[in-house]
Amino acid sequence: MTAIREFQVTFDCAEPERLGLFWCEVLGYVAPPPKGYESWEEFNDSRAPEDRGASFACVDPSGVGPRLYFQRVPEGKVVKNRVHLDVRVGTGLVGKERLAALEAECARLVPLGAVRDRLLYDGGDDSCIAMRDIEGNEFCLD
């Protein structure tokens, strides 16, 4: 059996660069231009008019996290995601300390365009905050 060593997470979206830059802010990722180009603008200028802005990508500068790829699709989001990202900001924390870390990260992301849905709390130390990104994709602060 072949071991998978790398993967990327792909987002279907309306505005790839806008959504990609949002996730760069959330995760501390960077968006180097495609190989052979000095910038995303130069890359887009080299494409046919209908393909300009159709994709965007960002990476974890440490090389640990997966690459995120954003591709423009014609249809909008209609139903709940079948897969979502958990942004792990409360790892190792419990009780009030965990909730404070989740709330602080939520407060940082809302001005960027994220939407808080609800606090999910089971009475223990596994609480998380369900949120949506700027195009309505669900994610959790965990």
Given as residue ranges, the uncertain stretches (5+ residues, pLDDT < 50) are none
Q: How many strand elements?
A: 7
Name the helicity range. Answer: 10-25%
Largest sheet: 4 strands, mixed
Radius of gyration: 17 Å
The count of helical stretches stands at: 3
The N- to C-terminal Cα distance equals: 32 Å
Structural class by sheet pairing and helices: alpha/beta
Strand order of the largest sheet: 4-7-6-5
Order of helices and strands: EHHEEEHEEE
The total domain count is 2
Estimate the mean pLDDT confidence: 93
Brief overview:
The protein is α/β, with parallel strands linked by helices and 142 residues long. The protein has helices at 16-27, 40-45, 95-109; strands at 8-13, 55-58, 67-72, 85-87, 115-120, 128-132, 138-141.
Kindly list the characteristics that best describe this protein.
142 residues; alpha/beta; 2 domains; three-stranded mixed beta sheet; 7 strands
